[in-house]
Amino acid sequence: MSGYHVRIGKVLTTMQALSDREVSDALQEQEKYRPQEYRLLGLPDLVRGGGAASGGRERLLGEILLDKGVIGRDVLRTALMRQWQLSLPICRLLKKEDMAAVVELLGFINSTINLDELLDRIMIAAKEVLNAEASSLMLLDEQTGELIVSVPTGPKREELKQLRIPRGEGISGWVAEHGEPLLVPEVSEDPRFFRRIDQVFGFVTKSVVCMPLRAKGKTLGVLEVINRQDGKPFSGEDAELLMMFAHQVAVVLDNARLQAEALERERLMRELIIAKQIQERLIPKAFPEMDGVRMAAFLSPAEAVSGDFYDFMVTRERDLLIFIGDVSGKGIPASLLMATTSTALKILLEMDTDLATAIETVNRFLSRGDLKKEFVTLFLGRYSPHRRSFHYVNCGHPPPILVHSGGQIELDKGGSALGAFPEERYPFTDVSLQPGDVVLLFTDGVTEIRDPSGTLFGEERLAGVCAGLRGMTAEEILYHVRDRVLAFAEGAPQGDDLAIVVLQAI
User: Are residues 318 and 392 in the same domain?
Assistant: First the structure.
C-alpha cells in the first residue's frame, strides 16, 4: 500500500473481506463501464447512491462489489474509512465520529448536482469537524476582485450572505490575493484582520484559519473557519483538516463550472441549429426561370451560420432583381443582422418600392442609435433582358466584375456601407449587358481567403480567373471560380464567409 493513493480493492483484501480473485473479477467488470478518455477518480472510491450505472458514467468498484453481493455496505463503509486513513495522513487526526461524517459527506458529494445544498453541507461539516463557531465560503468576483460571502454558517448566517469584502482586505482578502493558507491564532495581534464585520454584526472574532480555493492554478475564493468553541486558538492540525475541506470545495466548484459551461455550449448549439435552419430558408434554393438570363450561386459559411446573403426576385415587368450582401463579423450576431437586412429589403422590393428609396430606408434603420454599430455592404441590381440594361447601386460592397467582349469592368458606383451614415444617398448607375456577358458578384471572403502561408487570394488573382469566363455556362463559371479559390486555400481554415453569384446574359 505504498504511495498516496490506496485502492479500495487492496484495502478489502487486507481486511480479508475479499479474495484477490473476487477483486480481480470486479475490476474486469469495471472495465466495461470505463470511459474511453478515463481520468483517475480522486479518493475515496465512494459508492454513488447504489444501483446500476446510467448515462455512460464509470461504475465505481465499491458499487460493483455491492451489486455482486460479495460485500455488504457496513464492510464497504469500514473499508472506505480505512482507505482514507491510509491514503491521507491528515485523516488520522479525525475522531471516529468525525471520520464517519467525512465519509458520509464525500458520498453525498459524489451523488448530488445541487450545488447550493452541496456547498452548504460541506461548510456545516467543516464547522463541526473543526469544532468552530462559524465558517464561510467566499467566492472571488473576477470583475472587482472582491470576495463575496456565499455560504456562511454560524450565528450571523443570514446577515452575512452576499456581503462583499474589498479586494485584499482582511485575512480572507490576503489569502485570496496571495493564494496561500493563513492560520491566525489571535486576530487582535494581526494587522490584516478586517474589523468592520465584527463591528457591524456584533461578532467577536478571536482565531481564524483561512484556506485558498484553487483549481487548475486559479484561485476561486477562500474557505474560512472562525473561533474554536472550546475557546482555544486554532492549531496547525486544524489548518490541515481545513485544507482537506478546501480541496473538496475547490473540486466541487470547478466541476460545477465545467458542468455550467457544458450546458451553455449545449444551449448555444441548439440555438445555432435553429439559426442555421432559419437562415437556410432565407437563401434561395432555386433560381427564377426567365428569358435572357441564367444564374448560379454558392455560399460557404465560415461558421455554422453566415453573415453573407443573396437573393433573386422577378418584377411584374419581368425584370430580375438581384442582391448580395455581407454583414460585418460572422457567427450568430452576423446571421441575425443578415436575416433582418435581407428580409427588410425583400419586403420593400416586393412592395414595388423605388430601389433608391428601399436602400435608403434600410440604411436609416441600420443607422439607428439604439442599434449596435454594425455595417452591411450590399450590391443591388435590376436587369431588364428586353432592354439589355443593368441598373445597379454598390453600397460599400466589393465591386462585382462585369466580363464583356472588351474586357472587364468593376461595378463600384454607389455609396457607403449601410448603417454608416443615416442621411446617405445612393445613386444608381446603368450599364449594358449583351449576350454572353457575365456579372460575377462575390463577398470579400473570396478575395480575402488565404493559403497556408497567409497569402491573400486578392483582387488581381480573381480578375485573372475571370478573364476566360465568356463562353462557359453559368454553372461552369461558378464551379470554375469556386474551385480556383478553394484550391488556392489548400485546405487552410476559412476565415470569413464566402459567397459567389453568377449572372449571365444570353
Answer: yes
